Amino acid sequence: MPLPTVAIIGRPNVGKSTLFNRLVGKRLALVDDQPGVTRDRREGEASLIGLEFKIIDTAGFEDEDAATLPGRMRVQTEAAVRDADVALFMIDARAGIVPLDEEIARWLRVTQVPIVLVANKAEGRGGESGFYQAMALGLGDPIGLSAEHGEGMADLFDALRPLIEREGDAEPEIDPDSPDAPLKLAIVGRPNAGKSTLINKLLDQDRLITGPEAGITRDSIAIDWTWTDGEGRDRAVRLIDTAGMRKRAKVQDKLEKLAVADALHAVDFAEVVVLLLDATRGVEVQDLKIADRTLQEGRALIVALNKWDVAENASSLFNGVKAALDEGLSQLKGVPLLTVSAATGKGLDTLIQVGFETREAWGRRVSTGALNRWFERAMEANPPPAPGGKRIKPRYITQMNSRPPTFAMFGTRVDLLPESYKRYLINGLRKQFEFGAVPVRLMLRPSSNPYDKA
Fold it and tell me: What is the recorded function of this protein according to its Swiss-Prot or TrEMBL entry (predicted)?
């Protein structure tokens, strides 16, 4: 049974993201004193005194033309409320009721969604006036709370419980290492590469705000989706949209710094990362830096050339990008390079299919017996060197972890092996066990026996 959904709505800067972060128990949403930080709706799993539900943080509701960026943000907020089981309407108790609060209240009264009125920043005497003013909105008595300090959470629980508590058992949890677990797929790249447009095309809806303005996306937005593969099977995917990442020297604005940090955090928790390039601009140094950061974190990487439908000199462009990737990512050759169009949908099914295949390789485990049979052949074909006349004697190898595949090699003086020989072993592992272009790590564990000089 899916979790019930609660959407937080209100004008800008009343504390919606602060309450969202408190309910999910993490600083997922960006928070700042300036209004309008949140743009897309962001989802998280909330827990309130044992009450479990999905919480949605929305953009501040503004009265603007639908063609403007604030107007497109409002459309997303309205959609979140329509799809929710409950709407938390938040006002700022210290600021009191303003005309925009009254407009939102009028709109909410004609919706079919149950409303819980919340007066935030109600701690102390400064919030008393606004708290009592909220009663005139016609949405029942408000709940006074402080999202920042955690006050009033018990009252919020009492208001939400009868509206969202459901009978029946919760869905069994899926092992994150299981092939049936959702594929965590993060889309990263420079601003205006088409990340949000690509996700909207996959979902077949305007779920994320898009437009000609660079840097629209700020929060990393995770969206659960079901993809049907070529064999008709439904596969769970968690799509993660991220803020565009420019060169560090160009990032001066505080909010942009927070957004980029949030995007990098999303990479750390993804399984497969899609680096989206703009085919009309080719590959740039910043793209290679993003790719290198992804690989250093041990994530599986796919590179996708977007806007392929309008690319010029396609064959030479593709070959040029491939050569630049091979040179710039010398530590890992053969990263999948795909061509897609977020505008037309071309290549998107292939992208998701490759994502699942890449995750399978990224999470693969190899038996110790198979590993050591390969290991013996590798030693015979190319014995390790003897730097300074000191004999290096590898003894055996085992897999320590997957996701990414990580191996440990034990033996005498193995810590003296040169990097070239480590690369020989890693490349052999990758080829023999079909790891493809996912990161493979090899740890060297020299003998701890001081008498082992063999």
Answer: GTPase that plays an essential role in the late steps of ribosome biogenesis.
